[in-house]
Design a protein that fits this description.
The chain has twelve helices and 13 strands. The chain is of the alpha/beta class. The termini are far apart. The structure holds 1,4-dihydronicotinamide adenine dinucleotide.
Length: about 400
């Protein structure tokens, strides 16, 4: 089936889904708000996981629609000709939760769960019992990587070790760099046209690694590789809405730079809706957003880093990519990509427009304050060093 046919099929699925909502209605305890998870990414669309409890702004995905209508739009959607998505590292903390969220996405017809841990096959069987439209298969070990990747439209990579207290993301480089290199080689060999979304840290270095591998293989397309920084946006939106008493569904804070410590730069001055912050609020929020990942690492006290919020963020990013591929216009998300927006920074996170071929346009930073400019100046050398480390890792390999 061609991409155009896929787009038509998906558009039909969406119309069926919304008409069901209209005729059957939703649970009286839920409201289907017009923009929440994907706010800032897609405007004015009803989303599959956009039904939140009206009783608590903090509740996330609500499954109550099923009990009210017996068959929710999510379950009822047909995805026979939707997209094939692979999760590499699917047995892990992020991988399992992310796979569950992807299983609920009606745009996906085929979900491939890959891991080096044998439990991945059981995770796939478990997930396959959910009565949503997609099929799920588990693949374990390098000899099954090709099967997992064959025909993929989107590959999401959360494989690798997470941080423990006291570690920086860069401390993960020695293990995760090789993992991302090898998995990206698999993508180059088996599905070179897929969009690749990299979660494995240090993202600032793993994305350059993936791009260098693709370059070596002659399959590099800068529109197809991105680092997932969505969690920084999710956190910023949540922290700002809580601080300011705003509806979180309406808040959008762009976050630029990279995805580690001071390389994370929230542009609070560009918060939507326009919001004013005192000097102290700006300073506190900026530092909290930069250290939010460490907040989770410390709270888990040796049990890993963010998994659930990360899975939620990656599901949002994945949906944005698929909506772009399906031909939807007006799909934007911040992500860490090959970029020429900032001089001497070959990789940088800014808002990107997603389209039929992946990243259609990398947007400029826009107007920033003197305070934000200070952080931008500070982050550049650190980000550049992490980019260079990733590039050298592949270039120096025998
Ligand atoms: P985890 O340890 O729970 O899961 C990692 C999974 O990767 C395991 O199932 C493991 O078997 C698998 N794996 C290891 N090597 C593999 C290989 N060569 N091929 C396939 N699978 C392989 O870790 P968790 O918490 O899921 O975190 C995964 C990564 O995501 C870490 O690098 C972490 O730092 C990163 N992360 C990124 C965030 C972001 O915002 N981009 C946020 C949070 C975590």
């Amino acid at each position: 089936m061609t991409m155009t046919q896929k787009a038509i099929k998906i558009a039909t699925t969406k119309i069926i889904g919304s008409s069901q909502r209209g005729t059957r209605g939703v649970d009286t305890t839920t409201t289907a708000r017009s923009s929440s998870l994907m706010r800032g990414a897609i405007k004015g669309q009803q989303r599959w996981y956009d039904q939140r409890s009206s009783s608590s702004r903090k509740s996330s995905v609500s499954f109550k629609t099923r009990s009210a209508s017996r068959r929710s739009p999510v379950v009822h959607a047909t995805a026979d000709d939707g997209y094939k998505v692979a999760v590499l590292g699917a047995a892990g903390g992020i991988g399992q939760s992310l796979s569950l969220l992807l299983k609920m996405n009606p745009m996906i017809s085929d979900l491939a769960l890959y891991d080096v841990g044998a439990i991945v096959k059981g995770v796939a069987v478990d997930l396959s019992h959910c009565n949503t439209a997609s099929t799920v298969n588990g693949y374990c070990g390098n000899e099954e990587l090709g099967q997992a990747l064959k025909g993929c439209d989107l590959v999401i990579i959360p494989a690798g070790v997470p941080r423990k207290p006291g570690m920086t993301r860069d401390d993960l480089f020695s293990i995760n760099a090789g993992i991302v290199r090898d998995l990206t080689q698999g993508v180059a060999d088996h599905c070179p046209n897929a969009v690749v979304a990299i979660i494995s840290n240090p993202v600032n270095s793993t994305v350059p690694i993936a791009c260098e591998v693709m370059k070596k293989s002659g399959t590099f397309d800068k529109r197809k590789i991105l680092g997932v920084t969505t969690l920084d946006i999710v956190r910023s939106d949540e922290f700002v809405s809580t601080l300011k008493g705003l509806d979180v569904n309406d808040v959008d804070v762009p976050v630029i730079g990279g995805h580690a410590g001071i390389t994370i730069l929230p542009l609070l001055s560009q918060t939507f809706p326009q919001t004013s912050f005192s000097k102290k609020e700006t300073e506190d929020l900026t530092v909290r957003i930069q250290n939010a990942g460490t907040e989770v690492v410390e709270a888990k006290a040796g049990g890993g880093s963010a998994t659930l919020s990360m899975a939620y963020a990656a599901a949002r990013m994945g949906e944005a990519i698929l909506r772009g591929l399906s031909g939807e216009s007006d799909v934007y998300e911040c992500s860490y990509v090959s970029s020429d927006i900032v001089p001497d920074m070959p990789y940088f996170a800014t808002k990107c427009k997603f389209g039929k071929d992946g990243i259609e346009e990398v947007m400029p930073i826009g107007d920033i304050t003197a305070y934000e400019q200070e952080w931008l100046d500070k982050l550049k050398p650190e980000l550049k060093a992490q980019i260079d480390k990733g590039i050298a890792f592949v270039a120096d390999a025998p």
